[in-house]
Amino acid sequence: MKKFNILLSFCLLTFSYSLYAEKNIIKLLSTTSTRDSGLLDYLLPNFENKYNIQVHTLAFGTGYVLGLAKNCDGDLLLTHAESLELKFIDDGFGLARSDLMYNDFVIIGPSYDPANVSKSTSAIEAFERIFVSKHKFVSRGDNSGTNLSERNLWSNLELKNISFTNDWYLETGQGMGATLNVAIGMEAYTYTDRATWLRFANKYNHVVLFEGDPMLFNQYGITLINPEHCVNINHKSANLLYNWLLSKPTQKLISDFKVNGHYLFYPNYDK
Questions:
Q1: Residue 235 shares a structural domain with residue 167
Q2: Is 70 exposed, middle or buried (0-12, 13-18, 19+ CB in 10 A)?
């Protein structure tokens, strides 16, 4: 009887393991804004229910998830730094990339606006005003798509000898939500994607002070990881998700997504 119980337990364990092994799971490596905005929780159940495939999302800054992808720790990328995405493909790590959707970045700060950012006529002027005032600015500092866009603006300033000293410029090395919390706690300026800001609850006295410059355009793309480089990834299912995200019904879902009455993303595949 004891031998029978041991044999039965072994069979049940083997059966359970085989069921788990047979589960079809996609690891989606995503930027944080698509998760923090609620978009992925809104979109992905539609895919999972249709195809009986689970999607597990790992959300970090774009630079970090590209590193994970190079190490074959994911099946599909959803990021927002096109130059890095194209280099990822050129270096042989990626197979294909498509535009998916866009929104924009905004500059936020305390409503009393000590640097008069709201009077700016361009994003570069807004950053110049912050630098000249030396009022505190909080950056993600994490090589994310948001951080790269911010750096690009600083690099376009005509001012010489810009010094990013910690008496006014702080890098958190963290995601957008944590960076917003630090900026609000310090009554500092920061740079964020609009979707995360609209979803963010703890705004306190912070408001959008500058928006609308073409330099604040924020393009999101999806990238297939090269199965010749990463032979054990779930390429077949990742390709299915890639095409599903680009399909007209899904693009309609993206365009319909709202938070607090605001549209957050605008699909632009093949436009």
A1: no
A2: middle
